[in-house]
Design goal:
The chain has 134 residues and is α+β, with helices and mostly antiparallel strands. It has one domain: Aspartate Aminotransferase, domain 1 (Alpha-Beta Complex). Helices cover 44% and strands 24% of the residues. Strands 1-2-3-4-6-5 form a 6-stranded antiparallel sheet. Strand 5 and strand 6 form a beta hairpin.
Length: 134
């Protein structure tokens, strides 16, 4: 990701800066997120595409010179640690090399996991709110 580019305000603007083959990969991830979480909202956060559900970050992604960075939060990478062990990454992040196909099934399962995690957190928060008596 080239941080010398102007600030982006939409995911479309972010994706448009890259060559077509990178745009295609980014759009694949974007489409997959919307298939799994059609109610997800899009925004730019930390200078990268971000999706939120239930008021919490679902995932982020970004393009770099040699990889696509995917950020399913620490819980997302912990849940899939064994499958992610073949990739570079850190706490809450994984790097999918550009010279390999995107592991769309794995990305799908991580997004599903995160969407369910956010849903449960929102339900738990709602259950804690005191109800007003009429």
């Amino acid at each position: 990701m080239d941080t010398n580019h102007p600030q982006f305000t939409t995911i479309d603007e972010y994706i448009a800066q890259f060559p077509p083959e990178i745009q295609d990969r980014l759009q694949q991830i974007r489409k997959l997120v919307h298939e799994i979480a059609p109610h997800a909202t899009e925004r730019i956060s930390y200078k990268m595409p971000t999706f939120e559900t239930d008021g919490k970050v679902l995932v982020h992604f970004a393009a770099f010179k040699k990889h696509i960075g995917f950020y399913p939060t620490p819980s997302g990478t912990e849940q899939f640690a064994e499958e992610l062990s073949q990739y570079q990454g850190g706490k809450g992040s994984v790097q999918f090399p550009l010279d390999q196909p995107l592991p769309l099934d794995l990305i799908r399962r991580m997004v599903l996991f995160r969407a369910e995690e956010n849903r449960r957190a929102a339900e738990a928060k709602a259950a804690k709110k005191p109800r007003k008596n009429p």
